[in-house]
Amino acid sequence: MSVIVRFAPSPTGYLHIGNARPALINWLFALKHGGEFVLRYDDTDRERSRAEYAEAIAEDLGWLGIHPHRVERQSERISVYDAAAEKLKAQGLIYPCYEMPDELERRRRRARALGRPPVYDRAGLRLTDEERGKLEAQGRKPHWRFLLPNFSDDPFTTERTEVHWDDLCRGPQTVDLASLSDPVLIRADGSYLYTFPSILDDIDMGVSHVIRGEDHIANTGVQIAIFRALGAEPPKFAHHNLLTTADGEGLSKRSGALSLRALREDGLEPMAVASLAVLTGTSHAIEPVTTLRELADMLDLAGISRSSAKFDPADLKPLNAKLVHGMDHAVVADRLRELGIEGDAAFWEAVRENCETVGDALGWWKVVTGPVEPQVGDEDRDFIALARVNLPQEPWSEETWSEWTKLLKEKTGRKGRGLFMPLRKAVTGLDHGPDMKRFLPVIGRRNTLARLS
Fold first, then answer.
1. What residue ranges in 304-389 does DSSP mark as E strands?
2. Which of 140-149, 191-200, 252-261, 353-362 bottoms out in mean pLDDT, i.e. has the lowest?
3. pLDDT in tens, 410-428
4. Looking at the predicted structure, is the pLDDT value of residue 11 above 80?
5. Would you give the DSSP letter of residue 173?
6. How far apart are alpha carbons 327 and 272 in whole angstroms?
7. How many other CB atoms are there within 10 angstroms of residue 280's CB atom?
8. CA 330 vs CA 120, 294, 349, 359, 426: distances in Å
9. Residue 246 region, left (φ>0) first, then alpha (ψ -120 to 50), else beta?
10. Comparing C-alpha atoms, which of 265, 274, 166 is closest to residue 224?
């Protein structure tokens, strides 16, 4: 069976790290199985959906390395949904209901007070044509519910009706349709809730696997029933755990600090974000992975924990640093130039292990080019003057630092920190930084000499 997966965001805000998890897992599953990834915008909410958010979603996915094989928009498929809805109406599989939200809530409260589950009683199904006409004459417009197949002959006498599926993340699952309310598929204003368009799209687009968060698991039994009512075989389902904040709170589009856009602006590498978003809450150790192909090989849906996966942004920086430390100059050369850094491979190799992000290299470039305020204490002034006199002539190499410090050790008897630290602070203005054997040749003799004055 060919693998086709989909990611269906609503273009009502920017993607956050919680959205990145299902997007990445779907992409990696397709990558692993040679399948296709469909980006499908759930943009039927005309008031909240915005074109700029759709563009931002595509941009964020591209930054992660996700390049959809196909892009669809539900707003362009309304006629498909209308035709299917009319067919279900004609078959008596969806029926009109006229209750207002406050009426439904009162009924639910009453049911709970009587110790009964707050399941819809199918009152709308009992209405005669005359009763419906009166309600519509009052200005009420119906919403439409799907009649769950949880009865034999009489829809008002439900019986246990089990729906089973083998969840690729959670194993065998069972839902009793008799314990559920008939779901609303069409609102009173004629717009569709997510469930109906989603199922029709999955059928039309040949989606083979629906991989999504565990918050959808309760809906799956109903959706399988709707697939079958439409004459289609349901796809395979996988419900992975959800990312939460380190405090255990759910993520949302309001979590601006964890939006992909904000993480990108902080200079984080997409593979650091992808590694943490995918590996958190799995059987794998969290480690920086350099390519999505490598991450795809690690993906095991059955190895995803059933417990929530706590995402701590503080874990990103160490992962990011490990990735940066292993990057060759060729990988970052264009980005360094965009930062205004004119240093070559020697510069990058000297400073990369002191960078948490590629952008951190700019600070070290400023140390190279200056101006730098040398940090020289009174007790070291004579030593620094002697160091200036004995500064080796060019050409310089990685051996220059060793030759210079060896000579100064012989002349002064200084050693260890007392020898190396005054030189570092005089040349770089800092008491920490890159290995001086590599950094000194990048700074060059002219700059070094000027700082020893």
1. 309-310
2. 252-261
3. 999 999 999 999 999 999 9
4. yes
5. E
6. 13
7. 22
8. 63, 21, 11, 15, 32
9. alpha
10. 166
Q: Quote the radius of gyration of the chain (alpha carbons, Å).
A: 32
pTM: 0.90
CB 230 within 8 Å of CB 161 = no
Q: How far is the C-alpha of 6 from the C-alpha of 344, rounded, in Å?
A: 43
CA distance 287 to 319: 7
For residues 367 and 348, what is the distance between their CA atoms, to the nearest angstrom? 13
pLDDT band at residue 276 under the 50/70/90 scheme? very high
Three-state DSSP state, 194? coil
Could you give all domains of the chain from N- to C-terminal order, each with its CATH number? 1-70+241-326 (3.40.50.620), 82-184 (3.90.800.10), 327-369 (no CATH), 378-451 (1.10.10.350)
Structure tokens at 75: 């707003």
Q: Is-contact 64 24, C-beta < 8 A?
A: yes
At 26, list the tokens: 């779907």
Q: List, for residues 24-65, the tens digit of each pLDDT value.
A: 999 999 999 999 999 999 998 878 889 999 999 999 999 999
Q: What is the pLDDT of residue 362?
A: 98
- Order of strands across the sheet with 70-73? 4-7, 36-41, 70-73
Place of tokens 């309310």: 181
- Cβ-contact 25, 299 below 8 angstroms: yes
Could you give the CA distance from residue 258 to residue 155 in angstroms, rounded to a whole number? 47
Q: How far apart are CA 184 and CA 220, in angstroms?
A: 15
Residue 445 pLDDT greater than 90, yes or no: yes
The Cα 54–Cα 139 span in angstroms is: 36
Q: What is the pLDDT of residues 255-264, one digit of tens each?
A: 555 899 999 9
